[in-house]
């Protein structure tokens, strides 16, 4: 089926969509996961304390690179990127010369071989200068060609592509389509094996291809039809990943998209018409594309927490300096409690942002833990919190927060781009899994043990006999697990006493973890197969885990600083204490809202809105978007000019 046929109205049913997504998941837990334990009532502090330490050789490479990077970008003007909506060629040249496009690529393939922590610190530095720079490099290395080739490529593919990427051949990742976001079962782009069995022909189109306008190499997700091979065997087919040369005949970049923020991002629409790709360029087996994409994202998502932490640090600096400089009613505005509360939130939350990133990256670098939930929680928590920080900073700055930096400069004041920061940060709540999708993804992993135990009870298509049999099997699991939720170290007043004032918060995390597990079980027992439809409940469950994870990360980081940075350990403890107290209040609200909420009323109201029952409420306004195009446009059939523009060409 072609992409145009798929977009003509055929729907992939819900069951088929779930099956595709489920098949792409990692099914086993072969290594321990701290965050998974939080959702199951198993608070294992030893998994994150002591805080994992970096490899000395990798750390030395990171320190040297950060110094070189600072020198390379010292004359970059972020205002140029904002005004011209593109990154200048000489900036790209400087980044290539310093090795920034090969930060995560192993040394033996021409890269710098940095660990995730130093890679993130580099993105933090670049992102505070211009988030478009961070987006360029993270899209190239976190989800573009280097990461999937490093993880899943053959030795021949690694030798062919990694040195090119390290030298600055920009790459992009192409999955999204006009009618395909987080539901890959609808994928319309196809890759058909040619008669000779030595190449594939790709047809279709991709939307929101970050770096796609300037890329030299692409990772393209396409559906391979199952069928008979030239040797008589059958191909398995399925969504597969291909490395594609961006200048291949038949590829056209039809548009460069423009957004409210990240104005320097090179994001486009790419069409494929009979694009021939060697079979040797397929990554992994046919049908393994989604698993490759999800596995890549497990650590690739950590680029967003790094840049969010950088945004928090910058916001804290501006909030502190401005709130001391601005005088109202005889005092600096920061001394007024209404503003002081915002400053306290920014400071405590920034410490949490950096702690969550540092811990998640260190766990991933150590390689001894399964970090799929930790990385997802880090992305979810960081994207939400950093955006709120920027919004609070804008409020502190008042009219100057809403005013552009260029306008401030023009009238002789310090050019502080707060409104740009808010615009640039907003995409992080959508990038690499929207907040809503992250809630569902994390919830699925968090309740994995329940689903395995419940079996057919959690399957809406199971018959009564299967459900009865599953109930017998589940009883054994819950007979052992439920009693473990009754008591724990969080009830003992002297537990974690070696952590001083932070001990009471560790006890709270332990108690809250067991409490969260009990509530999750109650939801499973109440709704069984209907649990997945209660997305608001699941979202609160996930958010509770995120808060507990962030609290634990803060405490782990304080203990690390007591030995690594003793001069700042005491002030770090104050930040951690403040964050934990703020977080506990949020947790209690979430616990209350699990069961005391307006979810039922809201579901009923939403259905009536969709049915048009309240169209009268929309009267009295004008909608300038009417008549401008379709909600989801079919792919054009006309030949459009190619807007591809490689850097340096």
Proportion in helices: 40-55%
Strand arrangement in the largest pleated sheet: 1-4-7-10
C-alpha Rg (nearest Å): 26 Å
Spans of 5+ residues with little confidence (pLDDT < 50)? 1-10
Q: Which geometry do the CA atoms define?
A: globular
Largest sheet: 4 strands, mixed
Task: Give your account of this protein's structure.
The protein has 649 residues and is an alpha+beta fold. Helices cover 53% and strands 10% of the residues. It has 24 helices and 12 strands. The strands form 4 sheets. The chain has a 4-stranded mixed β-sheet with strand order 1-4-7-10, with helices on one face. Strands 2-3-9-8 form a 4-stranded antiparallel β-sheet, covered by helices on one side. A two-stranded antiparallel ribbon has the order 5-6. Strand 2 (190-193) and strand 3 form a beta hairpin. Helix 13 (337-366) packs across helix 22 and helix 13 (337-366) crosses helix 23 (566-595). The longest helix is centred in the middle third of the chain and has 30 residues, at 337-366. The chain is globular. Residues 1-10 have low confidence and may be disordered.
TL;DR?
It is built from 24 helices and twelve strands.
